[in-house]
């Protein structure tokens, strides 16, 4: 059954198909998840205070004009991380995670994401 958004304007907003994936090797390891929203469990490798890491999410539901919302959903130290979408391209987006806790953290945080379809010309 199509979601509310699919029935009116295309994929990815309203009720969406959700998935989950876990990073394998380290916090910079890319992941693949072809859903409009989902959960990304990061690797528990150490991230020093003030350090930032970026990883790619391959996702065939993403277009270059889309908006991808990301956030620290669960796990780890609340308020200890900054999570932003740092790039969007056709078929992928990038997530940058920074440690702002005041100390090194080795936590497998969970990042939530949702794709909003952008305007096309």
Description:
It is a single chain. This protein has a single domain (4-116), classed as Sandwich (Immunoglobulin-like). Helices cover 4% and strands 42% of the residues. The chain has one helix spanning 4-8, and strands at 18-22, 31-32, 37-41, 52-58, 67-74, 81-89, 92-99, 110-116. The strands form two sheets. Strands 1-3-8-5 form a four-stranded mixed β-sheet, with no helix packed on it. A four-stranded mixed β-sheet has the order 2-4-7-6, with no helix packed on it. Mean pLDDT is 90; it is low at 3-8.
Summarize, please.
The strands form two sheets. Strands 1-3-8-5 form a four-stranded mixed sheet, with no helix packed on it. Strands 2-4-7-6 form a four-stranded mixed sheet, with no helix packed on it.
Average pLDDT for all residues: 90
For the record, the CATH architecture stands as: Sandwich
Number of domains: 1
CATH class identity: Mainly Beta
- How far apart are the first and last residues' alpha carbons, in Å? 28 Å
N to C succession of SSEs: HEEEEEEEE
Question: How would you classify the helix and strand content by structural class?
Answer: mainly beta
Radius of gyration (Å): 15 Å
Shape annotation: elongated
Q: Low-confidence stretches at least 5 residues in length (pLDDT < 50)?
A: 3-8
Total helical elements: 1
Q: What summary fits the major beta sheet?
A: 4 strands, mixed
Task: Report the helical percentage.
Answer: under 10%
Q: Write the CATH fold name.
A: Immunoglobulin-like
